[in-house]
């Protein structure tokens, strides 16, 4: 970090420190966003854009730790502004990092104006350090439904930006791709291929599409049929209804404000969070396996099995090599991209059972993995987020055109239903 | 991998897990197990319930037919409107009306005669039940004959009994595991397909068994390979539960695992409702001596200092700090139930009687 960047960080920290009410925060971010929009128009951004990170508090419902306690245990000091808003001071560096808004006991948003690299790393570390926190995971399947919402919400002449990212990291052409710490690696969302980029000889797709909504609406589904990685949407822009630009939603819950209005940015986050919340409730209600005790007058109790398996079906069967490498890479390495632990029980050349654990949230998950599908049994208490992260990762690294089902219901139809039923009535 | 699909079809644990899968909602086309029961509107009403006959039924049958006061079928399926139920019992093969199994069958036939009362659903008698046996490879006709003989015997000697009975047979073909059933079963349960139905497609050199809901039952006859596999599944599930609980714990804290908690976690809580005390004792001994003690033995010195085996057969972990938690997780994640002697005989435990 050079001197200029360090000074900027200090300025940002100081500016945020002086904000002591919700109104001031909104006004500050609103004015800040308008300035950045002007700079964007002139192609000369002097300071970073406003970024938000949608987070989920995944402790057992009803027994979640208080947000303050959660952060304090990581040496992060939340300074209370009001009941649901905190100014965040990183006790390790003495820097003010941003603001955390508690939307519901389960969902938070972290707003910051620090540089993307710095903010991304800080949030990733925050999530990595706590089994109680996770990103909000928006899979390609979810984005495909949100894209329909963009069509409904914005005028056809507005521009949309969509980023597609798929990398078949388990598809090996030549030598084995070795990387012990896969989970620390994120595929860069930048389209710039630097001097030190590896030479890739496996399918890796990264496209950015910016065009009028009417054009994309007409072409996208046809293009997706022709080239499957186009199902793997990993970023989608909601055009701002109050001006130029919009809000870029990323698959791991980051939202960059590329509009001149913070209030509009926040209301889009609340809208998507509402859809996600509904989807999560539906997923857990349907998928959680448990024995429900049905007490009858006599004689005793009967145990009714409730729940539904999660099925992720690949568009095309995986090759034996890809299947083997995926299993090896996931379950033989402590730090793997899927963040799963388990001892695979080999039942055939292309079939394993894993009675494993989601290592991020430390919850059990039972998996049948074959070259054609993944079936997951999720015991009650395992957060629905585990399922969404699994779908996200499969689309990104295994099969961009994979279909997912909870029981006999297609996942996308659940997202559609969630987007119809989502209601959010913010206090502010 | 040596595979004997014939033997697998005769394995009651495979059968009961298959029956549960047949009742699970699955994608319309992309299913692994064809959800015959689910598509026919049947759900799992209860797993391994104890059905006690009401006093008037016991009095009516006492001294007349050789039956029990209560019986535990493997599964009860219910139609969506709950007006029809299927009492399902899994057996390796068909049996004769002279065998010891016939006693249980008579009891279940009597229970079927007024299932609403037995299940305490209602007193009005509008619920009907069918007793079905799920057997592997047997002759469907032979099994049907046995049930007919038993049903007629009960009807002849008492005012109870049910004419609703039948069986499901599963057997492998070249490419699939097929399920067969007679017309009266199809009609009673409104099954959506004519038999035989391909319930699981076979893949070359691949064990067809689905993820098990019920991982292990010591009472069930199994081949050595199947028993080892089922014990491994049980241990893997317990290990996963322990890792989950330790990984999600705050530090510093003390964590306790009782045998009952571990077995409940591995069986979706079925252990708790089992009334077979001998089987439960066996499972506790199995988990304690073949699994927990092995974990203790395989742990490093530093970790062993944080673990203790309590007087009530509980395993205690003292998570003093983050480093202890991480080291413990590291060791547990390296522990491989696959390397245990999974066919070893289980010896009675020293505290068995104390526990009970």
What does this structure look like?
The complex is a heterodimer of chains A (428) and B (356). With 428 residues, chain A is an alpha+beta fold. Chain A has helices at residues 3-17, 22-41, 67-72, 116-129, 140-153, 213-226, 262-287, 320-331, 384-397, 411-421, and strands at residues 51-57, 76-82, 85-90, 95-102, 107-112, 133-135, 159-167, 204-212, 233-239, 245-250, 254-259, 288-295, 301-306, 310-313, 340-341, 345-348, 351-358, 363-370, 373-379, 403-406, 409-410. In chain A, strands 1, 2, 3, 4, 5, 6, 7, 8, 9, 10 and 11 form an 11-stranded antiparallel beta sheet that branches. In chain A, a hairpin with a 4-residue loop joins strand 3 and strand 4 (95-102). The longest helix of chain A has 26 residues, at 262-287. Chain A starts with a helix and ends in a 7-residue tail after the last helix. Chain B is α+β, with helices and mostly antiparallel strands. In chain B, 42% of the residues lie in helices and 18% in strands. Chain B contains 15 helices and 12 strands. Chain B is globular. The two termini of chain B are 41 Å apart. The chains are: A alpha+beta (428), B alpha+beta (356). Chains A and B meet through strand 12, strand 13, strand 16, strand 17 and strand 18 of A and strand 1 and helix 9 of B.
